[in-house]
């Protein structure tokens, strides 16, 4: 069997096993049973259960980062910022993606050695995309008040807060409504020429 296929099967089996326990625990034995692979196959790819959990988190965080990167490529910068916020919050409206978010934020993954660094890597990817949007807007005059590095951090924090509200079910608005409100707030703070909601 191709080693890439082995690795993919182990990661997929780990996700299914975490779903089955509500993210509370992961048994390597159960992963191997579900993947129909041996202990030797496991150690060809991962030195420990923690490495497997981090690989699962990285796979998902890279998928989200790629989704956000595509949104950030929109033009002009106002459209890019709106698309970026929408892309993030709409994850919570999709049942399958929502379930993956809950698994990726589970206690078992959070306990994995190296998780804090891996989570920080993901946050840096997200913030870098926001910085790039704001730099484009400052360069072309769309965001005259922008301070890209610091403002990106505040905007990311606001997005994360809105995201967490959607995930926990405590949000007072739908994902799209929250995205529009948050985007409007950010555009006004950036001094955007186009600070009105999409469609007026």
Classified in CATH, the superfamily of the largest domain is: Tetracycline Repressor, domain 2
Residue ranges: pLDDT <50 for 5 or more in a row? none
- The backbone outline, from C-alpha atoms, is elongated
Strand count, sense and barrel status of the largest sheet are: none
The percent range for strand residues is under 5%
Could you say what the CATH topology of the largest domain is called?
A: Tetracycline Repressor, domain 2
Provide the succession of SSEs: HHHHHHHHHH
Number of domains: 2
Q: Helix- and strand-based class?
A: mainly alpha
How far do the termini sit from each other? 56 Å
Query: What oligomeric state do the depicted chains represent?
Result: single chain
Which whole number gives the mean pLDDT?
93
The number of distinct helices, counting runs of at least 4 residues, comes to: 10
Account of the 3D structure:
With 200 residues, the chain is mostly helical. Helix content is 73%, strand content 0%. It has helices at 3-20, 28-35, 39-45, 49-72, 77-90, 95-104, 107-110, 115-139, 148-168, 175-189. GO terms for molecular function: DNA-binding transcription factor activity; transcription cis-regulatory region binding.
Core attributes:
single chain, 200 residues, mainly alpha, Arc Repressor Mutant, subunit A, Tetracycline Repressor, domain 2, 2 domains, 10 helices, elongated
In short:
This protein is mainly α and 200 residues long. The protein is built from 10 helices and no strands. InterPro entries: Homeodomain-like_sf, HTH-type_TetR-like_transc_reg, HTH_TetR, Tet_transcr_reg_TetR-rel_C_sf.
